[in-house]
Write a structure and sequence with these properties.
This protein is an alpha/beta fold and about 220 residues long. It contains 9 helices and 8 strands. The protein has a single domain, classed as Alpha-Beta Barrel (TIM Barrel), CATH 3.20.20.70. α1 runs parallel beside α2, α1 (about 25-35) packs parallel to α9 (about 195-219) and α7 (about 170-180) packs parallel to α9 (about 195-219). The structure holds ligand 3NM. InterPro entries: Aldolase_TIM (IPR013785), ThiamineP_synth_sf (IPR036206), ThiamineP_synth_TenI (IPR022998), TMP_synthase (IPR034291).
Length: about 220
């Protein structure tokens, strides 16, 4: 069975932040550089469903070949049609229990911004939660103010399912996020907005590994 959430770097594809590169090109570069999970996050306002489907078919192939978990944001139909590993949902999306009936054993992720929302997601059967925005971000429209590292601490201490930290995470604050208990870390613009995606991911992986090693030594 696919792991419910891999440790490491969780990347997200959204073409408008990718400096004119296609989602497929960026997916290949991210997978080559070693992201452990890749999410497709496009909105019907930016692309037709037909175009999204075609991209997801190609990205499914790239991720399958590399053993990378593939998650589709929002669209359960798309996720099922391309045999993605999972679906990621926001607070205003489909309720989780009926969604589970639809997608069966597929991984279900839920964005959360408070401990109440995190507990609710666990009760309703989410496989993992998003925890954010840790820092201020302009990338997600309509998201609440930064929740800070305090929310991450609460989740690490109180929530029994895997979680991914997200929102405003960059090379300069990644070490803090890992030190506060995140084993899976998501960055959008830091990665897909970089000129050299491979070198950027390698730099982030070094910070992740060095911080994790120090935490381990301190135990
Ligand atoms: N979800 P960047 S924050 C997609 O808090 C998304 O749930 C968030 O982008 C949440 O790494 C966010 O560029 C955007 O700040 C993260």
């Amino acid at each position: 069975m696919t792991a419910r959430l891999n440790p490491g770097i969780y990347g997200i594809l959204t073409e408008k932040f990718s400096r004119g590169r296609s989602n497929i090109q960026v997916a290949q570069e991210m997978v080559n550089a070693g992201v452990t999970t890749l999410q497709y996050r496009e909105k019907p306002a930016s692309k037709s469903m037909g175009e999204m489907y075609k991209e997801c078919v190609a990205i499914r192939q790239i991720t399958r070949d590399a053993g990378v978990t593939f998650i589709v944001n929002d669209h359960a139909d798309l996720a099922l049609m391309v045999e993605a590993d999972g679906i990621h949902t926001g607070q205003d999306d489909l309720p989780l229990r009926p969604l589970r009936k639809l997608v069966g054993d597929m991984i279900i992720g839920r964005s959360t911004h408070s401990l109440d929302q995190a507990r609710q997601a666990v009760l309703e059967g989410a496989d993992y939660i998003g925890v954010g925005p840790i820092f201020t971000t302009q990338t997600k429209e309509g998201v609440c103010d930064a929740v800070g590292l305090a929310y991450l601490d609460h989740v690490a201490a109180n929530i029994a399912i895997p979680f991914v930290a997200i929102g405003g995470i960059k090379a300069h604050n990644l070490g803090q996020v890992v030190s506060h208990g995140a084993r899976t870390v998501c960055m959008i613009t830091e990665i897909i907005g970089a000129e050299d995606i491979k070198a950027t991911i390698q730099g982030l992986q070094t910070i992740y590994k060095d911080t994790s090693a120090k935490l381990y030594q301190a135990l």
